[in-house]
Write a structure and sequence with these properties.
Distance between the termini: 37 Å
Radius of gyration: 13 Å
Number of helices: 5
Shape: globular
Number of strands: 2
Structural class: mainly alpha
Strand order of the largest sheet: 1-2
Largest sheet: 2 strands, antiparallel
Order of helices and strands: HHHEEHH
Helix content: 55-70%
Strand content: under 5%
Length: 81
């Protein structure tokens, strides 16, 4: 069982969605599309938990998409694909 301090360092998909204004289905889609790049942790019950590095990657993906890059181009830029 994780202690409460270690859990506070992670965000739920709901928290990330609200904080970054990205719909939860988009976050789930990106997780599939960017397999091996965006890999949130999972609780024993299967719920996603995002650490700071995951949030950084999500922000990077969002920025590159807004710049007009395709998913293939973003994968290449992030080092996979």
């Amino acid at each position: 069982m994780e202690d409460m301090d270690s859990l506070r360092q992670f965000s739920t998909i709901q928290q990330v969605s609200q904080r970054l204004d990205i719909p939860k289905p988009t976050l789930r889609f990106w997780e599939k599309e960017f397999e091996g790049i965006l890999v949130p942790l999972r609780t024993n019950g299967g719920q996603r938990r995002y650490a700071a590095e995951h949030i950084f990657i999500i922000e990077e993906i969002r920025m590159l998409k807004k710049a007009g890059l395709t998913l293939v181009e973003i994968k290449r830029k992030l080092g996979k694909g």
